[in-house]
Amino acid sequence: MHDTIRPKLQATAALLALALLPFAQTPAQAADLPRENIVLKSAIAVDPQQNTVVLPLYKGSAAGKTVYYILADASDKTVAQSLGLNYAPSIGKAYTQTASGAPQSLTFAGAPIFSSGRVYKSSATGFPPAQANPGSVADDSYSPFVRLPDGTTLDAPIIASGAGPFDVTTHRNTADRVLAIDTEKKTVTILLAHGFFNGARVVYLSTDASDPGVATIERATYTKKLAQSSPASEQAIITLANGQTGKDNPQAQGLAYLALDEQLSQPAVLSDSASFGSPLNIIATFAAGPGAAGYTPLWAANVGVWSKAAVAGGQNVRLTSITQVFALAGKGEITSPDGKPLGPAGPVVNCPVVAFIDTIH
Fold first, then answer.
1. Which residues have C-beta within 8 Å of that of residue 145, sequence separation ≥ 6?
2. 304: which of 12, 57, 80, 334 fits an S-S bond (Cβ 3.0–4.6 Å)?
3. What is the pTM of this model?
4. What strands lie across the sheet with 187-191, from one edge to the other?
5. C-alpha distances out from residue 257 to 84, 123, 185, 247, 264, Å
6. Has residue 218 got a pLDDT over 60?
7. Does residue 87 sit within a domain?
8. Distance from C-alpha of 289 to C-alpha of 268, rounded to nearest angstrom
9. Closest CA to 30 of 183, 148, 198, 187
10. C-alpha angle 319/281/329, rounded to 5°?
11. Backbone region of residue 289 per phi and psi (left: phi > 0; alpha: psi in -120 to 50; beta: other values)
12. Hey, how many other C-beta atoms are within 10 angstroms of the C-beta on 242?
């Protein structure tokens, strides 16, 4: 960062840090998780059982219209610390849009359109779907990653548009994971995703995907141009297509399980948030523990398919680490959908991490 910019930024950071003290000092009982488990420090409350996180809500504009957004990650460590965000230096190499203004009141070049109405219709096997249409679609100028004039990149997904009232039932003017918005208190409640890192249970957001089918599954904004991000900005996320199914099955995991057992076809609502499950994906890095140095919210999707022999033998059990997955891939027990060795499938997703449930080793 240029020396002429840093003093101003540090002064701003000090003021922001003071403003964020209520978040930092929120008692542990305000969230089911202890504060030390929450890596996205600006989070006001995290409830893994109800699958919810409450975050600060920011008001901005795009093309002269009011939009609301969240902040999750920053490429500059000072900015990340001052705003209570995850530090993710490699997002500077993601596909970005330009933005102006302070981080808390951004003017964006582009925005999502939330009015299309999400549709997921399962096939007999759950996945692949019979039909998948995302509920929100980015315009040609939009990316959740915004580059500020000083060179800092923020992960600032737009999650609602307009003056309200906001539709948090069928999501015609909000993102599909938005469960509640309070513009007076400046908070938003968002549906969490559950997954694994290095054997530990973790929770994260899922805001954008470069593929329409993936966006539908993730309840995310279809943001095609994310695929233009540099591979240097990405890490791997593993999703399994044909793991075991069954709502109460402790070995259940993957896309078929999500479609058949976890209300994937239904719109997410706050009153029933605990019943909306996740495919229990496996991520390669996390913003705490041994993966912190390489953390990025931008994940390259690797879709794994268990072999017919593994499925027949009941070996398609729940996996919780990248090491497990690639050990099995090396034996040919897990492949890409086309039968080739497991690797990036093409889509990328923006999934900022929020907290860990189990201790990260």
1. 91, 94, 95, 96, 97, 153, 154, 155, 156, 298, 350
2. 334
3. 0.90
4. 45-47, 52-56, 187-191, 178-182
5. 34, 12, 37, 8, 10
6. yes
7. yes
8. 31
9. 187
10. 50
11. left
12. 23
- Which residues face 180 on adjacent strands? 189
Is-contact 90 219, C-beta < 8 A? Answer: no
Residue 83: which region, alpha, beta or left (left: phi > 0; alpha: psi -120 to 50)?
A: alpha
Q: Per residue in 312-347, pLDDT tens? A: 999 999 999 999 999 999 999 999 999 999 999 999
- Quick one: average pLDDT of 168-195? 98
- Residue of 266 and 115 predicted with greater confidence: 266
Sign of CA dihedral 260, 32, 198, 70: positive
Q: Does some domain include residue 5?
A: no
Q: Is the peptide bond before 165 cis (omega within 30 degrees of 0)?
A: yes
Query: How many domains is the chain built from?
Result: 1
Cβ-proximal residues to 246 (8 Å cutoff; 6+ apart), any chain = 252, 257, 261
Residue 119 domain boundaries = 12-18+30-356
* 253 touches 240 (CB < 8 A): yes
Percent of the chain with pLDDT over 90: 89
Residue 88 is predicted with a pLDDT of: 98
79 in a domain, yes or no? yes
Cβ–Cβ < 8 Å for 204, 70: no
| Residue 117 counted as domain residue | yes
